[in-house]
Write a structure and sequence with these properties.
By secondary structure, the protein is mainly β. Helices cover about 15% and strands about 55% of the residues. The termini are far apart. The N terminus is likely disordered.
Length: about 350
Amino acid sequence: MSIQTRLLLTISVCLSPVIALAQPEQTELRTGSNHAEQESEQASEIASITSDRGIVTQPGRFTIEPSLSHAHSNATQVAVEGYTVIPALLVGLINISEIQRDIFVGAVSLKYGFTSRFEAAVRVPYLSIQEDLREREAFEGTPVDTLRESSGDGLGDVELSVRYQLNDGLEGWPYIISSFRVKAPTGDSPYDVDQQVINDSQGNPIGIELAERPTGSGFWSFEPGLSFIYPSDPAVLYGNLSYVYTLKDEKGYQNGNTVNPGDVVRFGFGMGFAFNERTSFSLGYDHSVIRKTTYERNIDLFSANFDSIQIGSLSFGLSQRLTSSTSLSLTVSIGVTENAPNSEITLKLPISL
């Protein structure tokens, strides 16, 4: 046996324990990396049950998310026109009306992850709206209620959005995701649908209403925002903050010339739990502060509007993983402020390809 051969055998015998020790360590590193990826993906799924708050889509993954939602609202309004003789006696006209509205929204969202930190998405909604108004003029001397019905359906406002993950959520930091959403006025706005005159029982015109329900806002809007996701085993804490800026637009003399819709401040927070690898539960709260709309030409000299409208809702959701690439989530939202929908149910079926 040559000297070179003996030297090679000696080196291989000396290194074999080192190699044997190194192999389990590499396997452990790979296992830890996979565990971290699974943990972040599970946290993303839990946080995104009630809204779009998850971590960005993985690179090269394409997600199709069909959804269906139903929102129900009803409210009772009392309009008084008259004067009081004593605090218990009113002389004048009392109009009591009850409004009931049902909105069905079917939408398809498409998401694609370009990198491990950046994704883009588009959402196309279709709306069907039914609104009923029941009223009675209490001092007109009739016990008969009048009922007016109106409806509308069609394409809603299409949304385009991009999201970028700012950090990796290491060293005790939460995942921080920035977002930017653009909503285009693709639906029929209140300024596009026909209007009709409202008459009283004697045939006198008393106002104007829309002939059908609009499916869009009629304005471009831009919404930058931040989302936070903090895994804290076994729970996941999340929150979001955004600001919606709406461009003013010329809508004609009869509508007040240039209309400037109020901007919106949105925020929300919540927490979720994973019961097991397939089932998750989430509980959250969302709130919006909407500034009032202003007009270049005052079209109602006697109107008195609040400076802002508060819309708050409490949401809870349940998500069930059906396959490795498909899950089903159900969210129920309950309005806690007067202007929020009484209830809203949303069903989502994201499918990853």
